[in-house]
Amino acid sequence: xxxxxxxxxxxxxxxxxxxxxxxxxxxxxxxxxxxxxxxxxxxxxxxxxxxxxxxxxxxxxxxxxxxxxxxxxxxxxxxxxxxxxxxxxxxxxxxxxxxxxxxxxxxxxxxxxxxxxxxxxxxxxxxxxxxxxxxxxxxxxxxxxxxxxxxxxxxxxxxxxxxxxxxxxxxxxxxxxxxxxxxxxxxxxxxxxxxxxxxxxxxxxxxxxxxxxxxxxxxxxxxxxxxxxxxxxxxxxxxxxxxxxxxxxxxxxxxxxxxxxxxxxxxxxxxxxxxxxxxxxxxxxxxxxxxxxxxxxxxxxxxxxxxxxxxxxxxxxxxxxxxxxxxxxxxxxxxxxxxxxxxxxxxxxxxxxxxxxxxxxxxxxxxxxxxxxxxxxxxxxxxxxxxxxxxxxxxxxxxxxxxxxxxxxxxxxxxxxxxxxxxxxxxxxxxxxxxxxxxxxxxxxxxxxxxxxxxxxxxxxxxxxxxxxxxxxxxxxxxxxxxxxxxxxxxxxxxxxxxxxxxxxxxxxxxxxx
Length: 514
Description:
By secondary structure, the protein is of the alpha/beta class.
């Protein structure tokens, strides 16, 4: 039996399918975003938490009154992220896989946006390659597996730039549509600065975009529109700018670190290892030479013209130059992580360098070589100690859970900077420390207006050890306390002796019994 559908039904069905079908450019951007998400998400739960992540988790787990008390004193620039993470942990818990998942999602969103943005200026293949290379950069895979706001800020930076280009290219649209686009730019700029204040570094880059991407006959109008939208966005962000300025001492630690040289920045800013940096910068040089020296054939090869490539080069270099120069002449402000928001441009320029090679074999060889040098860095990042400073707090928690008993005492080394204090293992892996007596704690971090607990020296709380038969000392290997052995000597005088010492990657666990 044959059934014939009425033409109107068929037409209606086709219209419905077309309505829900993504265009090929949208599909490719979505697929790149999914690949980027999975690359960042894979094994993201493997490394132990580290100091900055501990600050995120501990802040997010405070009560609202405690959190706002903290933000009144410090870390206001991270306040919106902490509020978001507070709700996220309430819904999905505080495990590594849960708290790092938003960053992996953000990297997927950023990669998709990178493809959309690059397609404004170059061929689809090069744009797709740019999104994929961005997703593979060591800086990107690191922040995509970290409970911090950097990945989310990078996604906002990409889509803010997409929105800017779209607004510039809609100069002949209706006035209502133009106002909507520029208002959206202002709101997204303000949101980005509440998430990550240094997103303001994109404004000089966007000035270049306005000059290059705006249609010539509308340049003056677009400059005025962008200046107005930027000013309104900065006005909306004025509260966080003022609070962040008043709390600028919280980044004073940058001034106590060794000055970062241009060579160190060239390696560590996005590439993590020297082999990756050599390969990446070689392709960047190829991109610059071919686009700026070649007089014809750029369009046929899908390459951007000089003006378009200048946008991505400005995105790469201007924020870095501002922070490096500002550190020298104003105040210490340069940090490798602050330049993560430039990584999308880096991925695109490298992709241009690959596309500029003369033969398919050379292009395939370049991509293969880039992947080969990236893989070792990726493997290290996804190892047990893959986070900054080789943090081993989960392993510490596993040892304590297996060997310590309720009623035992525990003393934490306080002779290192706050982000390294072994005490943080107790806060990010609390189940392993249930029932233990924190001997030197005077006031919990949740009851203070600061990030960390208030503690006293062991020598000031000796009455608390009188009824204990076993005490655990957790020390940062190589710290002042671990070299001096003051706490060991203090407990020895109280009748304890060292029963066993366990050295993990960064932490020494000393079991002392009577």
